[in-house]
UniProtKB/TrEMBL annotation:
It comes from the Bacteria. It is found in: Membrane. CDD domains: STAS_SulP_like_sulfate_transporter. The keyword Transmembrane helix applies. The lineage of its organism: Bacteria, Bacillati, Actinomycetota, Actinomycetes, Pseudonocardiales. InterPro entries: Membrane-Transporter-like, S04_transporter_CS, SLC26A/SulP_dom, STAS_dom, STAS_dom_sf. The keyword Plastid does not apply. Its main location: membrane. This is SulP family inorganic anion transporter. It is a multi-pass membrane protein. Residues 408-495 form the STAS domain. The chain crosses the membrane at residues 25-48, 60-84, 96-115, 122-140, 152-172, 179-199, 219-240, 299-317, 361-390. Coiled coil: none annotated.
Amino acid sequence: MPRSALPDLATLRARWTPRLVRTEVLAGLVVALALIPEAIAFSIIAGVDPRVGLYASFTMAVVIAVCGGRPAMISAATGAIALVVAPLSREYGVEYLFAAVVLGGVLQIALAAAGVARLMRFLPRSVMVGFVNALAILIFTSQVPQLVGVPWAVYPLVAVGLVVIVGLPRLTRVVPAPLVAIVGLTVVTVTAAVAVPTVGDQGALPDTVPLPHLPAVPLTWETLRIVAPYALGVALVGLIESLMTARLVDDITQTGSDKTRESWGQGVANIVTGFTGGMGGCAMIGQTMINVKASGARTRLSTFLAGVFLLVLVVALGDVVALIPMAALVAVMVMVSVGTFDWHSIRPATLRRMPRSETAVMLTTVVVTVGTHNLAFGVGAGVLVASVLFANRVSRLVGVDRTVDDGGAVVYRVTGQLFFASSSELSTAFALDGDPDEVTVDLSGAHVWDASTVAVLEDLRRRYARSGRTLVVTGMNDDSRDRHERLAGHLGGGH
């Protein structure tokens, strides 16, 4: 990095003001409190001890704060990763899970080196909107079990928590509203002896720090065969969720981030997590929104402290944390879901102006993500539908204009983008029986993109040749000509 690009000491001192540090510290504390029940819940989904999820959240947050490319983004144990590794831990045991997490981290580093982050530019805006809306729905629905079959006191506590989170910022932003709601409701339930579900009811909290160890699995090809598919799932799901969350935070904060660094940073974090007895993880949209939107954090300090506070809370202050009513955390997560959802995208005025194809892509992403609880499936389905609809739309822009000059010469002028979805219609536009001995195809207004188009042009040439006539193709640009010369005559008849 050139010297001019490095901030001087005065700039750093001006940036790290007491107000900023206070914001980052309090944001980290709020996120840590919200991480505890989530990590325990995801551990249950993965079929492992709650300590495995809590250790993963600690190591992921601390390592990604140093290695990641998106400041203020929170990484920890997630439901998406839990769903991926659950069959492995259930069938082979937790040590195989640790091995899969380590290998998944290695694969993420390899994918980062291969430039996987650059693929983010192929994600349409409609997929991003669907991703955000689906996450908001999943965050909300994940809180429903905490509201069903519970004592009646839970409902007024949640309502009070919502009022505090919504109303307090209008009076002051000195202290994050979610933290006030959590502390206030805890004090009320403890002093009034209100019997409601608490964090302690979700599972045992760890009483020691995680210690490094090698996964206790045989170092054989059979072990690799078992863990490799799950490791690949951890790598892909983790990167998709992390990179899309990073892009969302970029938009919220109006700042850029290094997606390649984020990719390999996720890999390093998962390797460390696997070696310290964690279930693996990736970026968390809910906790990230708490950190960035609800608490106003903007730096790596909040991410780092979220992990540190989490460990301190569950190890040193586990008895106190266990008293926090789940109602307080439900109120926080409900408001996170409301703030995450893109309400503008479903307004009638927006839907009227938006092309139906864009709305279809957004809805596909939402439906598949919510239906499978798998962000990778939802994003993949959205991209697939977007690609098909885009190809269909572009294919309709191809035109073929047949002209006959005074001498009887026939010229077919083709315009548009010629690829598999559009070039197949070319053959029906040519009037073979009524054409003279020599016919010209002018492609100066078109572009040849693939082998399908070259195959169609070659088929037309052969059909004219069988009747003793000649087809001459002219006007190709350099890229189209190079592709045509490389492929013509080498595709086989009709292929």
